[in-house]
Structures are given as C-alpha cells and as structure tokens.
Amino acid sequence: MKQDIPGTIMFDGTQAQKGLALNRMCFSFNSAENRAAFLKDEDAYCAKFGLTEEQRAAVKSRNVLRMIESGGNVYYLAKLAGIFGLNVQDIGAQQTNTSVDEFKAKLAAAGR
Amino acid sequence: MARIIGGVATTHVPSIGKAIAEKKQNDPYWKPFFKGFDYVHYWLAREKPDVAVVFYNDHGLNFFLDKLPTFAVGAASEYRNEDEGWGIPVSRAIAGDPALSWHLINALVGDEFDITMCQDMLVDHAVTIPMALMYPGEKWSLKIVPVSINTVQHPLPSMARCLKLGRSIGRAIENYQQDLRVMMVATGGLSHQLDGKRAGFINKDFDKLCMDKIVNEPEVLARYSIHDWVEEAGAQGVEFLNWMAMRGALTGEVSELHRNYHIPISNTAAATVVLENRAEAKRRAA
C-alpha cells in the first residue's frame, strides 16, 4: 500500500463520488448568468444543486480545505473562487494558513 | 507525405491569458516567461507548420466529471472557446482539420486505444493560451487536432500509456498521404500543486530531470507511477502526461533547440521547450 502524500487528497473515485454535487454547481459557474444567480441568492442556488450539509457549510464559510475534504476538485473550486475575485495564490494562502504575500514569497523561493 | 517537424511544450496557466489581455509581457513579473517565446516565434516562422496536434487537459469546459474520457480526440472543423468562469477573456476560435482527425482516430482505435471522438469540442485555456503564446496578435492560420488527456479525476492513464498513445499518433502521421508539415504541442506543467495543505509545492530538481529526460530518454520518466509523480511534481504536475504523449508522437531522435524555465508563474514552475525532429533537420540541411 502506497503511503499517503502529506497535505494531498487524491481526487479519486471516492472523492469524485462525494463531490459530484459541489463540483456540478461549480461547473455551472462557467455561465455569467449562473454566477450572478449565486451571488443574488446563495442559499437557493446551493439548494438547487443538492449540496450536502458539509459542502454547504464549507461554501458558506469560504473554507477551501473543507470544500476539498467534502469532494471538491480544485479546478472547479477555482471557478467559485473567481466569483469572489480570488485567484490560486489567494486560495493557496488560505489553505496553507499564511498571508498571500508569504505564499507568493514561498513560490518565488522555490525558484532559487 | 506528412512530415513531423518537431514539438513545442509550454505551461498553460490561466493568468497568462489575463497578462496577454492587459499587455503585461514586459512587466518584471512576466518578462522572464514571455521572453522565452522569442525563440519559439523564430522557429515557427522558419518551420511554418500547417497543423498541430495539441495534447492538453480540459479543466471543466468541454467535459465535466460525470462523463470524463481518458483520451478524447477532436474531429471538428472549428474549435471554440467559451467563458471558463475564472475571468480570463474568451479566445477567438481555432480551425480544425477533420480529415487528419479521422485519420488519427482510425489509427488509434486500430492500435487498441479506445478513445472518445468529438465532432463538437470546446477547447479551454490549455489550448488557447499556447496558441496565443506561439502566434501573438496574428491571424491563426495553423489548424489543430486537439487530444484531451484526463489529468483531473483518478485513475489517470500512466506516463507509459501516454508515451504509447503519442507513438501511435506519430506513426499515423508518418503514414498520412497529405503533404503537411505537422507540429506537436504539449501544454501544462511543470511542477505545481493548487490544492490542500501542500498547495504551493514546486520541485525544481525534478522539473530539470523531466526536461532533460523528455528529449531522448522518455522511458526513464515512463517508469514513474502517477502516485510517485504527484509526490515529485505536485497534484497538478501530472499534466506532464501531455508532454509524454507529445514526445511519443515525435517518433525518432530529437534535439532540444530551446528551453526556458522560470519560477513562479502563478503557482507553477513554468517551462517552454522546443524539440526538433532530427530526421527533418537532416532533410532540411541536405
């Protein structure tokens, strides 16, 4: 049995099954109309896609690690993050519990 | 007869699309990446490819996770881009070459690759950004055959499998009766991880190994399992599957003509590589 990779949840069949509703909602954000509908009434929009309680709480609290634990895939979650004007450095900082500047500095340091 | 001239591999980070739209190519942050394309432009102007086979991964534009092909080959006369939901401008469309697409589809299925064939196919930033990088501000006369590889939902195809897929495509092109100059394009990578507490992971040493070995020892890289690849290159570093397929499609020996490597672009170790088919270079020299 392979050892788990620390800080990494493989997006496999278990996660894909768990995350289908959440990822389907995020997939819908390819449409500007749907993004506007989400912003207008977030509760109603999430209810329409049948998010689990765990997923709804994760979205409500804008907590990316919890979204991933509840089956979210980062490419789809990025579409949700985009609604709030957040990019992958912003969500990287949140997940690693650092400031965005610290996260960017860590990326730059990897090049040295 | 069709000839394979070589290949271009490049990172496809979405924010590059924004940087192009906002004309930030000469900003200190972006310049080390964009200047890596000067040679690519010179090479493309010299080689004048007619068509590119583009190995890429879809990020939730044409495919969703409910019905996700491991390998999908486009067979459309035109490939459109649409709103991807992350705020990058929608790209213009790219022309297809359905006759070549069907030739490749027939050859792949004949070689026991049970691919999905797509007569309608939207292409996302993983295709349009490399096009915009290779042909900035021009009319795109290059036609494409997009080949989408699942790098998103595990189980993913192996590195070895993608190398074989590329080889099947390379052989098929060498047997294609049309007089075409064909280029291979791989998009994505190198090391990066967007998700989890390990977000921001980058591995410069492993990336260098990949760029060295992809030239004429891809078999060394083909031995890695996907699990080991995630460990070495990060969760999204598996986009290197596209590079493996591209290398397979460059059937013989190749030479590295150009390499640019820069950390970071967004959360990613950005790489641009040009590989030339040695047989084609000899033919040109003769």
Task: Give your account of this protein's structure.
The complex is a heterodimer of chains A (112) and B (286). Chain A has a single domain, classed as Protocatechuate 4,5-dioxygenase, Chain A (Orthogonal Bundle). With 112 residues, chain A is mainly α. The termini of chain A are far apart. Chain A is globular and about 45 Å long. Helix content of chain A is 66%, strand content 0%. Chain A has helices spanning 13-28, 32-40, 42-48, 53-60, 64-69, 74-83, 88-95, 100-109. Chain B is α/β, with parallel strands linked by helices. Helix content of chain B is 37%, strand content 21%. Chain B has eleven helices and ten strands. Chain B has helices at residues 14-21, 31-34, 38-47, 98-110, 125-134, 159-174, 204-216, 218-222, 226-233, 240-249, 278-285, and strands spanning 3-10, 51-56, 71-74, 78-79, 94-95, 116-118, 143-149, 181-187, 254-265, 268-277. In chain B, strands 6-3-7-2-8-1-10-9 form an eight-stranded mixed β-sheet, sandwiched between helices. A two-stranded antiparallel ribbon of chain B has the order 4-5. In chain B, strand 9 (254-265) and strand 10 form a beta hairpin. In chain B, helix 4 packs across helix 6 and helix 6 (159-174) packs parallel to helix 10. Chain B starts with a strand and ends with a helix. The mean pLDDT of chain B is 97.
Short recap of the structure:
The complex is a heterodimer of chains A (112) and B (286). Chain A has helices spanning 13-28, 32-40, 42-48, 53-60, 64-69, 74-83, 88-95, 100-109.
Average pLDDT reading of chain A: 96
User: How many independent structural domains of chain B?
Assistant: 1
Following the backbone from N to C, one meets helices and strands of chain B in this order, namely EHHHEEEEHEHEHEHHHHEEH
Regarding CATH, which class of chain A? Mainly Alpha
Biggest beta-sheet profile of chain A: none
Oligomer: heterodimer
Strand share of the residues of chain B? Answer: 15-25%
Q: Name the CATH superfamily classification of chain A.
A: Dioxygenase LigAB, LigA subunit
What is the CA–CA distance across the termini of chain B? 18 Å
Query: For the CA atoms, what is the radius of gyration of chain B?
Result: 17 Å
CATH topology of chain B: Protocatechuate 4,5-dioxygenase, Chain B
Total domain modules of chain A: 1
Arithmetic mean of pLDDT of chain B? 97
Given the structure, what is the number of helices of chain B?
11
Which two chains touch over the largest interface? A-B, 48 and 39 residues
Biggest sheet descriptor of chain B: 8 strands, mixed
